Amino acid sequence: MTHLQAGLSPETLEKARLELNENPDTLHQDIQEVRDMVITRPDIGFLRTDDAFILRFLRARKFHHFEAFRLLAQYFEYRQQNLDMFKSFKATDPGIKQALKDGFPGGLANLDHYGRKILVLFAANWDQSRYTLVDILRAILLSLEAMIEDPELQVNGFVLIIDWSNFTFKQASKLTPSMLRLAIEGLQDSFPARFGGIHFVNQPWYIHALYTVIRPFLKEKTRKRIFLHGNNLNSLHQLIHPEILPSEFGGMLPPYDMGTWARTLLDHEYDDDSEYNVDSYSMPVKEIEKELSPKSMKRYATDQLGSGSQSVVDPTALKRMDKSEEENMQPLLSLD
Question: Which residues form a coiled coil (predicted)?
Answer without folding.
Answer: none
